[in-house]
Amino acid sequence: MTEIVEDRVTPVDAPGATVLEARDLRVWYATDRGPVRAVDGVTFELHEGEILGLVGESGCGKSTLGRGLIGLLPEGSARDGELRFRGKDMLKLKPREQHAMRGRDLGMIFQEPLTRLNPLMRISEHFSETLKTHDKSISKAEIERRSLEVLRVMGIPPTRFHAYPHEFSGGMRQRLMIALTLVLRPPFVVADEPTTALDVLVEAQIIRILHDLRANYRTALLLITHNLGIIAEACDRVAVMYAGEIVEIGDAREVFSRPKHPYTRELLRATISLRTTGLNYIDGAPPDLVEPPPGCHFHPRCPDAMKVCATRHPVLRQHDGGSTAQCWAADLADGLADDLTETERTPLPREEIAVADEA
Amino acid sequence: MPTKPETLSNDGSGQGGGHGAGRHENVLDVDDLAVHFQLQGGALSRLLGLQARVVKAVDGVSVQLRRGEVLGLVGESGSGKTTLGRALLGLVPASGGRITYHSASKGDRRVSEMRGAELRQLRTDLQMVFQDPHAALNPSMTIEEAVGHPLVIHKIASGRALRMQVAEALERVGLSPVERFLSKYPSDLSGGQKQRAVIARAIILNPEVLVADEPVSMLDMSVRAKILQLMLDLKQEMGLTYVYITHDLASAKYFCDRIAIMYLGRIVEIGPTEEIFANPRHPYTKALLKAIPEPDPDRMVPRDLPRGEIPDAAEPPLGCSFHPRCSEAVAGCGWESRDLRALLEEHWTRKLEAYDDEKALIGDLDGLDRPSTTAKVGKGGAGEVRALLDRIRAENPDEPLWSGVRGIEPAGNGVEVQFQPADSPQLRRAGSVDVACVLYPE
C-alpha cells in the first residue's frame, strides 16, 4: 500500500497557456414551446494543466455546456458567441474541421462507461480503432506501445490488453474510457460526471487519476459534477452554474471558503457532509429555461434578494479574493454597486415558496 | 437531534426478555440470516452437470432493530445492504436463519417463514421506501390512486374514508394544498415531490417500521436535506422505526442512531454512530471515511485508498473478504492464489518493460483464478521462477501477502506457493462496537 502523499499541486502562479476560451457562449435547443436557453452567455478560460470544476443542480445546463464545448450537440440545437481553442474560433470552422478536432484536440469522458464500449471488441481493438482514425499509417507495434503506456498510467495490467469489456469491473471500465480518451493526448478534456455510477472507494480512485492528469499529460480538464466534495478535493478553480449562467467562478479554495454568490453559499450549506450538524436546503426549484425569471434568475429563491434583483440582471464583477460573481447583493457587500438607489436596495418581499414548487 | 436515544439498555441480551410485556424492546431480530441466490448456469454447464454458482448476498448476519431507532446499513454496491433490507420485509426469501418481528399489537411473528397472504398482511406493519421515486410510482396512476392503493389492496378503506386518509397522508408529507396534487400524475412532479408521494404511500397504513433504501440519493442536493428532515419529523410524529440503507456515510452520520457497515454480505462493524465515526475500527470503515469527498477547501485528494473493487460475490476471497484491498492486512487474513495473480499483474503494470520476458517465465495465470491456499505458477524452471518471485518480493517487502506465505516449493517446471489458511473473522466486541477483523481478537 502506498504512503500518503497529499500533494495538491500548488496553485500555478504563472498558469500554462490558455487552451480554451469561451466568450458569451450560448447554446439553445429548439422545442415546441420555444428555444430552451440551456447555456446563456457563458465566459471563461481554461489553461494547460488546470482542472476547472463545473457544478450545479440538474437542469442548470452544465452537461449542455460540456457537450457544447466539444460540439456534441443533438439536432435542433445551435451555438453562438466565441469559442476559441488555442486562439482559433471553433464556431467559425466547417463541420468537417470541427469533426476532425474531436478526439485529437477535444476529448470527452462519459458517465456510463459500459454503454460507450463495444461489447464485441477487445480492449486492444478499441485502442487500435481510436488511434487509426486519427493516424492511418500508425504501426501495430506503435499502437501497442502507446496503448500499454496509457493503460499503465491508469493502473490496468498489460495482461488484460486483449480482454473484452465485460471482463472488467465498473471502475476498470471507467479507467479504460479515460485511457481511450487520453491515448490521443488531447489538450482539452471534458469529464461529465465520470464517477456518478461508481462506489465511493472507486470514485476516489478515479478522482485521483483525473487529478494526476495535469502532472502526467498537462491536460486542461473540465470536470462536471454535482458533488461539491469532488470539486473541493480535485479542482483548481470552480464555476457554479445556475439557470444556464455561470454565477460565480474562481479559485476553488476561495469560492468554498468565501462564497460570494448566495446560490454558492446555499448550495454549500445544503450539502450533507461529515461536518453537517443541521439540515439546510434551498427552497423552490431551478427555473424553466424557456422563460427564466427577469433580473437575476436566482432571485425567487434567494434569501438575500433586493428589489433590484427582480428587475435588473446583475453583471459579472471581480470581487475581493479574486473570484468573479454576478450578484447585486455581493456587489453591495464589497462596495461595487454604489449606483443602486435606496429603493433598489430594499429587501425583496419574499413570496411563499410552497412544496408545490420544490425541486 | 431528537432521534438519538441516549440510553440503550439492551446489550444484545434482550432475546426472550420482554415477551410478556407485549412490547419487545426490539422490533426485529435477525439471527444468522442467509440469503443465497442460485446463478443460472448456461445450457452446456447444466448438460455437463457442473455445479451452479451461488451468490451469498447475505451471509450469516445477526442484528437487532430496536424500537424507535434509526439503524443505518452502509456499504458499497454488492455489499448486500439492499438484499438485507428486502429480506427484513420478506421481499426476498431467507435461505437460512431467522427473522422475528415483535409486533406491538399482534405478538411475535416469524417473517422468515411467512408465505403468500401472511406476507402481504405483514406489509401493513413493515413498509419500504425505494431509491428511485420515478420507478416506484406507476406512471398511469394519479397521486391519489397511488397513495391510496395500499388501503384498497388491504380493503381498509374506500370511498370517502379513502379520500380522507389519502388527503391526510399527503398533508403529512407536505404535499399541500392537497387538491393540487390529488389528480397529478408522477410525470407532473419533481423528484422531491415524487419521493414525498412514495413516503405518503408507505406511511398511509400506519406501519411500525420503514425500510428506506437510498431515499435521497437520486434527488438533487438542494432537496435532499428537506426529504431527510421530513422523514425525521414523521418518525417523531408517528413513532416509526427506520432502517436507512445507503452508501453515503455523510447522511448516515446525521440520520442514524446506529450504523452497520456491510461488506460482501456480512456486517463487518456495527455500533453507535458517534463511536463508528469517532473511532472507526475495521480497516474498511476507515477507508470509507477517508474516501468521502468533503466540500472542505483544505482537503486534498486522498492517496492511501484500498486498491481494487468489491470482488465477485459468487466466489468471495478466502478468509476475510476485505483482505485483498486492506491496508492493514496481516499474515492470518486468508491469502490465496488470486491474490498472487493480482500481485503479479500489479508488478507488471509498474514494470511494463519486464512484462514480456517475465510473462514467458510465469506462463498462463488462469490457473490462479480458482481460489486455493496453494498456487502453482511458472513454466520456465523452478529455480528461475523462484528467483523472479524473490525479486518481486524484494521490490516491496512490506506487501502483506508475503507474510501469509508458508512456503514456496519446486513443482514441475515452476513452484507451488503455499499460503496460511484462515477463517472469515466473526463479529467480536471491541469497546462499544462489534467488529469482524483479525486485528480485534476476543
Walk me through what this model shows.
Chain A: One of its GO terms (cellular component) is plasma membrane. Chain A: This is ABC transporter ATP-binding protein. Chain A: Pfam families: ABC_tran, oligo_HPY. The complex is a heterodimer of chains A (359) and B (442). Chain A is an alpha/beta fold. Chain A folds into two domains: 16-105 and 186-290, Rossmann fold, CATH 3.40.50; 120-181, no CATH class. Chain A has helices at 62-70, 95-101, 113-116, 123-134, 140-153, 170-182, 200-217, 228-234, 252-257, 262-270, 328-333, 342-345, and strands at 18-31, 34-47, 51-55, 77-85, 88-89, 106-109, 188-192, 220-225, 237-242, 245-251, 317-318, 324-325. In chain A, helix 4 crosses helix 5 and helix 5 packs across helix 6. Chain A starts with 17 loop residues before the first strand and ends in a 14-residue tail after the last helix. Mean pLDDT of chain A is 89; it is low at 1-14. Chain B is an alpha/beta fold and 442 residues long. Chain B has a domain at 335-419. Chain B contains 16 helices and 15 strands. Chain B has helices at residues 43-47, 81-88, 116-122, 133-136, 143-153, 159-172, 179-182, 191-203, 221-238, 249-255, 273-278, 283-291, 337-350, 355-362, 382-395, 400-403, and strands at residues 26-38, 54-66, 70-74, 96-103, 107-110, 126-129, 209-213, 241-246, 258-263, 266-272, 374-377, 405-411, 414-419, 428-430, 433-435. An eight-stranded mixed β-sheet of chain B has the order 6-7-8-3-9-10-15-14, sandwiched between helices. Chain B has a four-stranded antiparallel β-sheet with strand order 2-1-4-5, covered by helices on one side. In chain B, helix 5 crosses helix 6 (159-172), helix 6 crosses helix 8 and helix 8 runs parallel beside helix 9. The longest helix of chain B has 18 residues, at 221-238. The model of chain B is unreliable at 1-21 (pLDDT under 50). The interface between A and B is large, with 69 and 65 residues.
